[in-house]
Amino acid sequence: MNDAADLLEIPLAEPIARVNGEPFVGMPQDLYIPPEALEVFLDSFEGPLDLLLYLIRKNSLDILDIPMAELTRQYMEYVEVMRHRRLELAAEYLVMAAVLIEIKSRMLLPRPVMTPADEEADPRAELMRRLLEYEQIKQAAQRLEELPRNGREFAVLQVWMDETVGQRLPQVSTQDLLEAWKQVLARARINQHHRVTREQLSVREHMTRILRRLREKNFVEFHELFETGVTIPVAVVNFIAILELVKESLIQVSQTEACAPLYLSLVEPVAELTS
Amino acid sequence: MNFPQEEITAAKQLLEAALLSSPEPVPVAQLRRMFDPELDAETVRRLLEVLQEDWQDRSVELVQVAGGWRFQTRPEVQEKIARMMPEKPPRYSRAIMETLAIIAYRQPVTRGDIEDIRGVGVSTPLLRTLETRGWIEVVGYREVPGRPALYGTTAMLLDDLNLRSLQELPPLEPLGEGVGFPEAS
Amino acid sequence: MNFPQEEITAAKQLLEAALLSSPEPVPVAQLRRMFDPELDAETVRRLLEVLQEDWQDRSVELVQVAGGWRFQTRPEVQEKIARMMPEKPPRYSRAIMETLAIIAYRQPVTRGDIEDIRGVGVSTPLLRTLETRGWIEVVGYREVPGRPALYGTTAMLLDDLNLRSLQELPPLEPLGEGVGFPEAS
Questions:
Q1: ipTM associated with this complex
Q2: How far is A224 from chain B (nearest CA, A)?
Q3: Rounded Cα distance, C108 and C119, in Å
Q4: Measured between alpha carbons, how far is C122 from C118 in angstroms, rounded to an integer?
Q5: Residue A218 near residue B163, CB atoms below 8 Å
Q6: Which of A157, A165, A208 shows the shortest C-beta gap to B82?
Q7: Predicted confidence (pLDDT) per residue in A177-236, tens digit
Q8: Out of B26, B31, B84, closest to residue C34 by CB
């Protein structure tokens, strides 16, 4: 406990912080997080910027005048504890550690005399800008969260109305269907291997038709599925559909003896814990 | 009812708000639960009757149906309300359209297949919407553990889309090849 | 309005019925079409304002949001109504709310922009949650290599937050204020 506490102490020699204009006296000691709570602790941060903001706040540091060396040391100690606890370290935290170390090293190097207006030269400027911007968004998110929300603080009224007169059902066109399919494709990044062609589609259509027939009639004789007068391409597609259904274990083909008629039926339900 | 008038008013207003926000009928047993302490069924029923009277000269009425109580628009105004609807026909959500497209182009498919393709869960109400519309139906079951239902499209979908067969659906193009669909339509 | 009282009452009741039966906010332009002869926008607006007053001491209120006018429950009663509802509204994580805030205040933004501000990666499911909710949508593509999608917020977000325009969003704190000394603010 002492070791860990020491590891995460808040060693601020100079009273930089002022709260409400008053010099800061007592340093909050709650920065120390027991290792077993670290996992929970880390979960409550949205990322390295969030953790940095926490460290800065807990030390009541002026974000515009961050004592970079101390902050870096503390941050690195956190990262070290995380590593120690074999927690999965988010890459973003390590990147931030690198940023902090870089800033620290640049500040430790002897620098040429700098004009105060030379903001670009202050290595902390970019980090500050990001911290401030993130803090602003955090607060905005908090306010958005607090706004009254439909379904939470209030609900939209809707009374019943006879559907046949009032509510019109949405209409759909083939174009809508195509667009919807394209969205599916775009998102799933399905490449051309998975492309469904016109031919495959008609196979699918026949598959559904066959299943429907088999549901009505338990057994259908093979040739019944080939209506007379169908064109050869249709017959072929139908046959492929049957093969597909067999392949997908949706139907089974049976024959009592050689040369007897072939019968198609739905695959028997797998034995379940019935009765 | 031996309640002070303002309590009755508050209770009526609460019942009114609850019933106005639900297009489905709400049973008395459910309405009782809003009150703390819970009101007995008889009191709620009497309050509902008073509320019913309050609304009797409006264009919306409070009625009791099989599933409970609900507000509904009176038949006389429905036609006028319908008049303002046509310009903006309702649209199905993207989730519904994508599910329908997957069933149309990939049938027969299980809910799991649809979820795999869409990468997100498919809710029961979503499938029910399409079933109620008469556009999809269960055409069988896949004989794997759980026996998931296989969905296919119906003749009614084809009718509604003015197609004679599924083959008349716009053919799918490889990704990235223009947006329109040249051959069909 | 120089209409006889009974005509005003009838018009108000029709507006009330129409708004109560629509699950979405209804714009004035649409409400006008119910009347024969059509009422002008100004008259409809004034009737709506009177209707709003009629309802002001009830558990339900008539409000104007981005998409038009609608009735909704007041927060005080919603809590009680929620008591009888089995379903709880979804809670959104901080990651989701921060992403939404960035899109709302900085739109249009790419996923990369969001990641820069948050300092962490933004997952696809996170963005999809907001898209499925209907709060954000792709509004274009940035013409840089990879053509990343640009996200913006929708009218539905405004409707769901009871706002008429993006300008009614809570203003952003000036940079650096309330930072560092959260207790002081």
A1: 0.66
A2: 19
A3: 18
A4: 9
A5: no
A6: A165
A7: 777 777 777 666 543 344 444 545 578 888 888 888 888 777 888 878 776 666 677 777
A8: B84
E strand segments, chain B: 60-65, 68-73, 109-110, 136-141, 149-153
Q: Say which of C33, C73, C132 has its CB closest to residue B17.
A: C73
**Which domains, ranges and CATH numbers included, belong to chain C?**
5-82 (1.10.10.10), 94-176 (1.10.10.10)
Residue the block writes with tokens 């070290």: A80
Q: What is the pLDDT along chain B (185 residues), one digit of tens a residue?
A: 567 888 889 999 999 999 998 877 888 988 998 998 889 999 999 999 999 999 998 999 999 887 789 898 888 888 888 877 654 566 787 788 889 999 998 889 999 999 888 877 787 878 888 998 889 999 999 888 888 999 999 988 888 887 888 888 887 754 333 333 333 32
- A&B contacts, CB < 8 Å: 183
CB pairs under 8 A between A and C: 138
Nearest to C184 by CA among B35, A132, A19: A19
Is residue B150 within 8 A of residue B110, CB to CB? The reply is: yes
Q: What is the pTM of this model?
A: 0.60
Closest Cα in chain C, distance from residue B140 (Å): 30
